[in-house]
Amino acid sequence: MGCFECCIKCLGGVPYASLVATILCFSGVALFCGCGHVALTGTVTILETHFSKVTSDHAMLTDVIQLMQYVIYGIASFFFLYGIILLAEGFYTTSAVKELHSEFKTTICGRCISGMFVFLTYILGVAWLGVFGFSAVPVFLFYNMWSTCAAMRSPMFNLTTNIESICVDVRQYGIIPWNATPGKACGSTLGDICNTSEFYLSYHLYIVACAGAGATVIALLIYMMATTYNFAVLKFKSREDCCTKF
């Protein structure tokens, strides 16, 4: 076998679907974890500065955000390891399915491991759909505040409505308790909040984090299809009469 034929054979064993899914998964998780971590820090700063100036009123929220940041560290580490494992499993099953290395052989243990990855990937896919939906919540909250500020800057709005009567009350979202002071921002104060760097940065980072969660969902869907196909073919080829019933 010449060098060119050998290269073609090696390239035929590359699990391109798993490779694309791994790159997309790493990118999505990195965006979600990195941007989400910084955005949560900026959210705490905004709340402490403008909406809840008494520490005891938002102490529980601060603890929850710190816990979420630690969970983000765990998610990043887990998916880095899981992506590498799935990519390695993709190389193994692709080579076995295409029978690139001598005679085709598979074991019950190998098929069980492949089935376990299929099941685990389905579970993670469903879980990340929930994460994707949850990551859209802060985007919605920040968008409401940003759209209110944009409306107040409109000349037509200023002629018909008193700006100081326009308020955003974050207590209605359950973020801070109802006894938190001031709990809301109105008029020019609300406009000043929208002009702060913390608000601008946190808003856009939440959008990027949500997009990262969506990319991770797509990557897991690709993983599902690739692992399910490889497991099905491995199970089929393990049968002695596979050639006569294909």
Automatic annotation (TrEMBL):
Record bears the keyword Transmembrane: yes
Name one cellular component (GO) term: plasma membrane
Q: Which InterPro entries match?
A: Myelin_PLP, Myelin_PLP_CS
Q: Name one Pfam family in it.
A: Myelin_PLP
Q: Which UniProt keywords apply?
A: Membrane, Transmembrane, Transmembrane helix
Q: What transmembrane ranges does the database entry give?
A: 19-47, 67-92, 113-146, 205-229
Which GO biological process categories is it annotated with? axon development; central nervous system myelination
Q: What membrane topology does the annotation report for this chain?
A: Multi-pass membrane protein
* Assigned protein family: Belongs to the myelin proteolipid protein family.
- PANTHER family, sorted: MYELIN PROTEOLIPID, NEURONAL MEMBRANE GLYCOPROTEIN M6-B
Official protein name in the record: Glycoprotein M6B
What's the encoding gene here?
GPM6B
